[in-house]
Write a structure and sequence with these properties.
By secondary structure, the protein is an all-alpha fold. It has 13 helices and 2 strands; from the N terminus they run H-E-E-H-H-H-H-H-H-H-H-H-H-H-H. A two-stranded antiparallel ribbon has the order 1-2. Helix 3 runs antiparallel to helix 8. The protein is globular and about 50 Å long.
């Protein structure tokens, strides 16, 4: 990235933060009327709280990134329109679900359509494992992308949790753009999303005044997945796995445990490790603080894996990251000592 690209990323983050905060403040009175989240079996909140602040986060991200791309006139900053279109589409699906729950199958099909647009919009010469047939690789990426979008949604069940996860990831991707490990356009979008989440965070800190809602968590998952996919296309698979490793582990282990126990995995529940932590004596602030610290550590490991540029080093760093995540999950699943 050039110095101009770096400056644009900083401006994108600042612009998105200001716009996001302003839009959340303006939208909250309307969302109190049309998108009120009432406590249920999955909830960690006890009083009805408006949801839908994701509108502000996504609008701020796309407006900031899109405006700066347009003003720069830099061809290297072109963001695929398909990514923006899919983001808006899946946000609309999420908002519909926030207002009135959408049945599981249509919801998954619509989400899958958005993910497919992002996966198949990539040029055919972008490959992660060239020896695997093209359609098999893209099909697996479609399944992985659909799961990633939903796991971000599943994990958005605690005040500031999504910010604690996504801010370190997006900040790392933006920094990796400086090292030319992702395209400049990806770094710019990551910086804008990071800023938008920071602008939203004061309204979502415990006790939250507003939630993201599916209109936020689903497109955030899609954009994060796209950023990580660009990293994997640059053959930095270890970094792409390390950055979201806590979310991947918590959501995937929880899903497998529910399937093994014969529980309806699509139903609302409170069995994620971070949710169990609240029942085990951890405060919300303590949980999100520890998750944030863990994600910063994972981001540092991811960047170190790129700097070392060694398969053996990447494997060791993945094992270190997995061990740190396993320890965190163990702590959350056991009652905190008095």
């Amino acid at each position: 990235m050039t110095n101009a690209d770096i400056a644009l990323s900083v401006v994108a983050a600042a612009l998105a933060a200001l716009l996001s905060a302003l839009l959340v403040w303006l939208l909250r009175p309307m969302l109190l009327r049309v998108a009120l989240a009432k406590p249920n079996a999955r909830s960690s909140h006890r009083i009805p709280t408006p949801q839908g602040a994701g509108i502000a986060v996504i609008v701020a991200t796309l407006v900031a990134a899109g405006t700066l791309v347009a003003l720069s006139g830099n061809g290297t900053l072109q963001v695929p329109l398909a990514v923006f279109a899919a983001t808006l589409f899946i946000a609309a699906v999420g908002f519909a679900d926030d207002v009135k729950p959408v049945p599981v199958l249509p919801r998954l099909l619509l989400q899958g359509l958005a993910v497919a647009v992002v996966v198949f919009a990539a040029p055919a010469d972008l490959r992660i494992v060239p020896t695997v047939p093209f359609w098999i690789e893209r099909g697996l990426l479609l399944i992985a992308g659909l799961w990633f979008v939903n796991l971000v949604n599943f994990m958005d069940g605690l005040d500031l949790m999504t910010a604690a996860e996504a801010v370190p990831i997006t900040a790392a991707v933006a920094l990796l753009g400086f090292w030319a490990q992702v395209p400049p356009s990806t770094a710019l979008v990551a910086a804008a999303l990071c800023g938008a989440l920071l602008g939203f965070s004061p309204f979502n800190r415990p006790v939250a005044k507003i939630f993201l809602g599916d209109v936020g968590s689903l497109p955030i998952g899609l954009l994060l997945g796209w950023c990580l996919l660009q990293l994997a296309y640059h053959q930095q698979v270890a970094a792409a796995l390390l950055l979201p490793l806590y979310y991947l582990a918590d959501a995937t282990i929880t899903l497998l445990r529910r399937l093994i126990n014969g529980e309806p995995f699509w139903a609302a529940h409170r069995s994620h490790f971070y949710q169990r932590a609240t029942d085990n004596g951890f405060s919300v602030s303590r949980i999100v603080g520890e998750v944030f610290a863990l994600n910063v550590a994972l981001a540092l490991l991811a960047m170190l894996s790129i700097q070392l540029d060694s398969a053996a080093a990447s494997l060791v760093l993945l094992l270190v990251g997995a061990s740190a995540v396993a320890w965190q999950l163990y702590r959350f699943s056991h009652r905190r000592g008095r």
